[in-house]
Amino acid sequence: MKHIVKIMTLLVALSALWISLLQTSIIPESYTWLLPLYFIISLGCYGLLMVGVGLMRFPTCPHEAILLQQDIVEAKGFLKGKGVDIGSD
Amino acid sequence: MVMISDASMEVTEEKNKYSIIVPTYNERLNIALIIYLIFKHLSNVNFEVIVVDDGSPDGTQDIVEQLQQVYGEDRILLRARPKKLGLGTAYMHGLKHASGNFVVIMDADLSHHPKYLPSFIRRQMETGASIVTGTRYVKGGGVHGWNLMRKLTSRGANVLAHTLLWPGVSDLTGSFRLYRKSVLEDVISSCVSKGYVFQMEMIVRASRKGYHIEEVPITFVDRVYGSSKLGGSEIVEYLKGLVYLLVTT
To answer: What is the pTM of this model?
Structure first.
């Protein structure tokens, strides 16, 4: 099944649920009308939260830059010895 | 960092050969460094390096020919093209000349460090996965050289992509990957995007087709030279790519 079909099915199911809530009035109607809005806002807040948390916990590796420089020196030394003309960068 | 023992890999890897495809454009210095590091870290592995150079004016191909003298023409294959023809076609071109049963794709600019190659190979052997992709965004991985803005866009893009696509991998735009050769051939034939959306399309299509995908943490040291290419047009391209993937995969 294509992904978009999965998403559409989910949305249709949610819409059906919402309409049935409207019809049967388990929840007061004024509140039910606002449910989709609440849903979208919650989704947005969740997204922002995930971005914020991810940003705080973003893995960094400053030591890797140093290791890389060491590797570059080692590589240049070896290659020069083998006559590969790397020249200067 | 833990050094992975190569002894356990010797027994089974006689049957496996790894073709490492490295597309290049003006990477005269970096290609030499990358090749040295690949040979250093894969000393017990049967592999070949396929350099797909798009007619670099800086002499990249001359350097590769010199490296062939040092390491052997059977270990380093130079399969050049006349001009810049795009990343996807570079992989396809390299694939045609690959004699291994596994294919690694990686960048030539040293943002992908060859020292992770043994961990890709080992994870594939342990799990039998069809694809092993490197991820920068988990513990053990990481990025260096990105400012706050860059990290923010990356994280925002990632959350958006995950919400829309449910891809099953943590790093969608990464291009440091190991593929079973048959799997790469299958996936690449159905991809049409360009640039990093292409990398996303590959992994999403593979995920949809049900291929077993594993992830290993990698560190990514961004280019020190040159500016970070993340302007408004890149963001628009990315969003268009997301919608395209949402609808067609």
So the answer is: 0.86
